[in-house]
Amino acid sequence: MKYFLLFFIVSLHFTFAQADSLIIHDFNNFLKVGADFYTSPLRFDSKDWVKLSSVVGISALASLADKEIKNFSQRNQSESADALFNIDKYYYAEFVGASIIAFYGYGLVAENNKIRKLAVKLTEATFLATSLTIITKTIVGRGRPYMQESQYSFNPFTMDNDYNSFPSGHTTLVFAYSTVMANEVDNVFWKIGWYSAAGLVGYARIYHNQHWFSDVLMGAAIGYFKPWQNCCF
Questions:
Q1: Which CATH fold would you assign to the domain 55-224?
Q2: Whole-model pTM?
Q3: Is the bond into 156 cis (omega within 30 degrees of 0)?
Protein backbone atom coordinates (compact mmCIF):
# COMPACT_ATOMS: atom_id res chain seq x y z
CA MET A 1 0.00 0.00 0.00
CA LYS A 2 2.79 2.41 0.90
CA TYR A 3 4.42 1.80 -2.48
CA PHE A 4 1.14 2.56 -4.22
CA LEU A 5 0.80 5.82 -2.26
CA LEU A 6 4.38 6.74 -3.10
CA PHE A 7 3.75 6.02 -6.78
CA PHE A 8 0.50 8.08 -6.67
CA ILE A 9 2.22 11.07 -5.02
CA VAL A 10 5.13 11.00 -7.49
CA SER A 11 2.74 10.69 -10.44
CA LEU A 12 0.59 13.56 -9.14
CA HIS A 13 3.67 15.74 -8.68
CA PHE A 14 4.82 14.94 -12.22
CA THR A 15 1.37 15.71 -13.62
CA PHE A 16 1.16 19.11 -11.93
CA ALA A 17 4.74 19.93 -12.88
CA GLN A 18 3.96 19.10 -16.50
CA ALA A 19 0.75 21.15 -16.34
CA ASP A 20 2.67 24.13 -14.91
CA SER A 21 5.16 23.86 -17.75
CA LEU A 22 2.38 23.81 -20.34
CA ILE A 23 0.62 26.78 -18.75
CA ILE A 24 3.86 28.81 -18.79
CA HIS A 25 4.46 27.79 -22.42
CA ASP A 26 0.93 28.78 -23.44
CA PHE A 27 1.14 32.10 -21.59
CA ASN A 28 4.44 32.95 -23.28
CA ASN A 29 2.89 32.03 -26.62
CA PHE A 30 -0.06 34.33 -25.85
CA LEU A 31 2.31 37.21 -25.11
CA LYS A 32 4.24 36.57 -28.34
CA VAL A 33 1.08 36.48 -30.45
CA GLY A 34 -0.14 39.66 -28.75
CA ALA A 35 3.15 41.45 -29.46
CA ASP A 36 3.07 40.30 -33.07
CA PHE A 37 -0.52 41.45 -33.40
CA TYR A 38 0.02 44.97 -32.10
CA THR A 39 3.20 45.49 -34.12
CA SER A 40 1.80 43.88 -37.29
CA PRO A 41 1.11 47.24 -39.04
CA LEU A 42 4.87 47.78 -39.10
CA ARG A 43 5.14 44.69 -41.32
CA PHE A 44 2.14 45.35 -43.58
CA ASP A 45 2.74 44.96 -47.29
CA SER A 46 0.66 46.51 -50.07
CA LYS A 47 -1.92 43.68 -49.94
CA ASP A 48 -2.43 44.22 -46.21
CA TRP A 49 -3.00 47.94 -46.66
CA VAL A 50 -5.41 47.30 -49.53
CA LYS A 51 -7.36 44.84 -47.35
CA LEU A 52 -7.50 47.32 -44.46
CA SER A 53 -8.53 50.19 -46.73
CA SER A 54 -11.21 48.03 -48.34
CA VAL A 55 -12.73 47.10 -44.96
CA VAL A 56 -12.78 50.73 -43.82
CA GLY A 57 -14.17 51.87 -47.18
CA ILE A 58 -16.93 49.26 -47.23
CA SER A 59 -17.92 50.17 -43.65
CA ALA A 60 -18.07 53.85 -44.63
CA LEU A 61 -20.30 53.06 -47.61
CA ALA A 62 -22.46 50.82 -45.44
CA SER A 63 -23.13 53.75 -43.12
CA LEU A 64 -25.27 55.26 -45.89
CA ALA A 65 -27.78 52.47 -45.26
CA ASP A 66 -27.58 52.63 -41.46
CA LYS A 67 -30.82 54.54 -40.87
CA GLU A 68 -32.84 52.47 -43.33
CA ILE A 69 -31.68 49.21 -41.77
CA LYS A 70 -32.32 50.58 -38.27
CA ASN A 71 -35.86 51.60 -39.23
CA PHE A 72 -36.49 48.21 -40.85
CA SER A 73 -35.34 46.34 -37.74
CA GLN A 74 -37.48 48.49 -35.44
CA ARG A 75 -40.59 48.13 -37.61
CA ASN A 76 -40.32 44.36 -37.88
CA GLN A 77 -40.36 43.22 -34.27
CA SER A 78 -42.43 40.41 -32.80
CA GLU A 79 -42.41 37.91 -29.95
CA SER A 80 -40.84 35.21 -32.12
CA ALA A 81 -38.18 37.62 -33.34
CA ASP A 82 -37.54 38.75 -29.76
CA ALA A 83 -36.90 35.14 -28.76
CA LEU A 84 -34.58 34.50 -31.71
CA PHE A 85 -32.55 37.67 -31.33
CA ASN A 86 -32.05 37.21 -27.62
CA ILE A 87 -29.08 35.14 -28.81
CA ASP A 88 -26.83 38.10 -28.04
CA LYS A 89 -27.55 37.54 -24.33
CA TYR A 90 -26.33 33.94 -24.47
CA TYR A 91 -23.62 33.87 -27.12
CA TYR A 92 -21.39 36.48 -25.52
CA ALA A 93 -18.65 36.91 -22.93
CA GLU A 94 -19.99 34.48 -20.32
CA PHE A 95 -20.35 31.62 -22.80
CA VAL A 96 -17.03 32.39 -24.47
CA GLY A 97 -15.12 32.62 -21.19
CA ALA A 98 -16.71 29.52 -19.64
CA SER A 99 -16.11 27.40 -22.74
CA ILE A 100 -12.46 28.46 -23.02
CA ILE A 101 -11.85 27.59 -19.36
CA ALA A 102 -13.61 24.24 -19.85
CA PHE A 103 -11.60 23.43 -23.00
CA TYR A 104 -8.31 24.39 -21.41
CA GLY A 105 -9.01 22.55 -18.17
CA TYR A 106 -10.05 19.40 -20.01
CA GLY A 107 -7.02 19.65 -22.30
CA LEU A 108 -4.68 19.78 -19.32
CA VAL A 109 -6.34 17.04 -17.28
CA ALA A 110 -6.88 14.67 -20.21
CA GLU A 111 -3.49 15.58 -21.75
CA ASN A 112 -5.35 16.38 -24.95
CA ASN A 113 -3.08 18.85 -26.72
CA LYS A 114 -5.54 19.52 -29.54
CA ILE A 115 -8.25 20.76 -27.15
CA ARG A 116 -5.73 22.70 -25.05
CA LYS A 117 -4.33 24.43 -28.13
CA LEU A 118 -7.86 25.20 -29.30
CA ALA A 119 -8.47 26.98 -26.00
CA VAL A 120 -5.27 28.99 -26.46
CA LYS A 121 -6.26 30.01 -30.00
CA LEU A 122 -9.73 31.01 -28.80
CA THR A 123 -8.18 33.11 -26.03
CA GLU A 124 -5.82 34.85 -28.43
CA ALA A 125 -8.54 35.50 -31.00
CA THR A 126 -11.22 36.80 -28.63
CA PHE A 127 -8.95 38.82 -26.35
CA LEU A 128 -6.91 40.54 -29.06
CA ALA A 129 -9.86 41.24 -31.36
CA THR A 130 -11.92 42.61 -28.48
CA SER A 131 -9.07 44.76 -27.18
CA LEU A 132 -8.69 46.32 -30.63
CA THR A 133 -12.42 46.99 -30.73
CA ILE A 134 -12.39 48.67 -27.30
CA ILE A 135 -9.52 50.93 -28.36
CA THR A 136 -11.33 51.84 -31.58
CA LYS A 137 -14.61 52.51 -29.74
CA THR A 138 -12.87 54.92 -27.37
CA ILE A 139 -11.08 56.80 -30.14
CA VAL A 140 -14.01 57.07 -32.57
CA GLY A 141 -16.77 57.83 -30.03
CA ARG A 142 -19.73 57.14 -32.30
CA GLY A 143 -23.23 57.71 -30.93
CA ARG A 144 -25.46 54.66 -30.57
CA PRO A 145 -28.70 54.53 -32.58
CA TYR A 146 -30.93 54.77 -29.49
CA MET A 147 -29.54 58.27 -28.93
CA GLN A 148 -31.86 59.34 -31.76
CA GLU A 149 -29.06 61.26 -33.42
CA SER A 150 -27.50 61.02 -36.87
CA GLN A 151 -25.38 57.98 -37.69
CA TYR A 152 -22.62 60.52 -38.11
CA SER A 153 -22.75 61.81 -34.54
CA PHE A 154 -19.34 61.47 -32.85
CA ASN A 155 -17.78 62.33 -29.50
CA PRO A 156 -14.17 61.13 -29.87
CA PHE A 157 -11.95 59.90 -27.03
CA THR A 158 -14.69 59.03 -24.57
CA MET A 159 -15.53 56.06 -22.33
CA ASP A 160 -19.23 57.03 -22.35
CA ASN A 161 -21.14 53.90 -23.40
CA ASP A 162 -23.67 56.04 -25.29
CA TYR A 163 -20.83 57.00 -27.63
CA ASN A 164 -19.05 53.65 -27.92
CA SER A 165 -21.01 52.29 -30.87
CA PHE A 166 -18.31 51.72 -33.49
CA PRO A 167 -17.48 48.90 -33.91
CA SER A 168 -19.78 46.35 -32.28
CA GLY A 169 -18.02 44.55 -29.43
CA HIS A 170 -20.53 41.69 -29.34
CA THR A 171 -20.05 41.07 -33.06
CA THR A 172 -16.27 41.23 -32.85
CA LEU A 173 -16.18 38.71 -30.01
CA VAL A 174 -18.52 36.14 -31.56
CA PHE A 175 -16.94 36.35 -35.02
CA ALA A 176 -13.48 35.87 -33.53
CA TYR A 177 -14.73 32.84 -31.57
CA SER A 178 -16.80 31.41 -34.43
CA THR A 179 -13.97 31.76 -36.94
CA VAL A 180 -11.58 29.73 -34.79
CA MET A 181 -14.25 27.09 -34.11
CA ALA A 182 -15.29 26.93 -37.77
CA ASN A 183 -11.70 26.31 -38.85
CA GLU A 184 -11.32 23.38 -36.43
CA VAL A 185 -13.53 21.01 -38.44
CA ASP A 186 -13.53 20.60 -42.21
CA ASN A 187 -17.29 20.29 -42.53
CA VAL A 188 -19.48 22.76 -44.39
CA PHE A 189 -22.46 22.39 -42.03
CA TRP A 190 -20.23 22.90 -38.99
CA LYS A 191 -18.89 26.11 -40.53
CA ILE A 192 -22.35 27.34 -41.55
CA GLY A 193 -23.58 26.74 -38.00
CA TRP A 194 -20.88 28.82 -36.35
CA TYR A 195 -21.03 31.70 -38.84
CA SER A 196 -24.85 31.71 -38.74
CA ALA A 197 -24.77 32.04 -34.95
CA ALA A 198 -22.31 34.94 -35.24
CA GLY A 199 -24.45 36.59 -37.92
CA LEU A 200 -27.56 36.32 -35.75
CA VAL A 201 -25.73 38.04 -32.89
CA GLY A 202 -24.69 40.80 -35.28
CA TYR A 203 -28.25 41.44 -36.43
CA ALA A 204 -29.49 41.14 -32.83
CA ARG A 205 -27.41 44.19 -31.95
CA ILE A 206 -29.20 46.16 -34.67
CA TYR A 207 -32.57 44.67 -33.66
CA HIS A 208 -32.02 45.83 -30.06
CA ASN A 209 -31.10 49.31 -31.33
CA GLN A 210 -27.62 49.08 -29.81
CA HIS A 211 -25.62 49.34 -33.03
CA TRP A 212 -25.73 50.63 -36.56
CA PHE A 213 -25.31 48.23 -39.48
CA SER A 214 -21.82 49.60 -40.22
CA ASP A 215 -20.81 48.99 -36.56
CA VAL A 216 -21.73 45.34 -36.97
CA LEU A 217 -19.98 45.06 -40.33
CA MET A 218 -16.71 46.41 -38.91
CA GLY A 219 -17.00 44.23 -35.81
CA ALA A 220 -17.41 41.15 -37.99
CA ALA A 221 -14.40 42.15 -40.08
CA ILE A 222 -12.17 42.59 -37.01
CA GLY A 223 -13.28 39.23 -35.65
CA TYR A 224 -12.83 37.39 -38.95
CA PHE A 225 -9.70 38.91 -40.51
CA LYS A 226 -6.90 38.33 -38.04
CA PRO A 227 -3.23 37.35 -38.24
CA TRP A 228 -3.54 34.41 -35.84
CA GLN A 229 -6.27 32.71 -37.92
CA ASN A 230 -3.74 30.38 -39.58
CA CYS A 231 -1.36 30.21 -36.63
CA CYS A 232 0.36 26.88 -35.98
CA PHE A 233 1.86 25.49 -32.81
A1: Vanadium-containing Chloroperoxidase; domain 1 (1.20.144)
A2: 0.88
A3: no
